[in-house]
């Protein structure tokens, strides 16, 4: 299991706390220092079953500078969105957990974090 975090994010801290509480083994990826490539983003988006615009932090100043609010959200512009995320990782919603079973989740709630934990039954 890997978790993409921003160390200044309280949602990330909460997700890490819950993983520790549940005794989970995981790898931390500080994605601002180690940005995902476009191919990695494609993989994570596939695992999340989301589009790139679904994981964009539109309140970030760089989103306004890029004019993301006016970008078309379509198959034709999908690559442009992915490149924006790769070049400006601050735009990526966090935390994202990629589980060993191939699933992934934007883990902003306790329920989302728990959804990727192995079942104990």
From TrEMBL:
Pfam families, A to Z: ArsC
Source superkingdom: Bacteria
Gene3D superfamilies assigned to the protein according to its UniProt record, in alphabetical order: Glutaredoxin (3.40.30.10)
Entry similarity comment: Belongs to the ArsC family.
Protein name: Arsenate reductase and related
Native species: Catenulispora acidiphila (strain DSM 44928 / JCM 14897 / NBRC 102108 / NRRL B-24433 / ID139908)
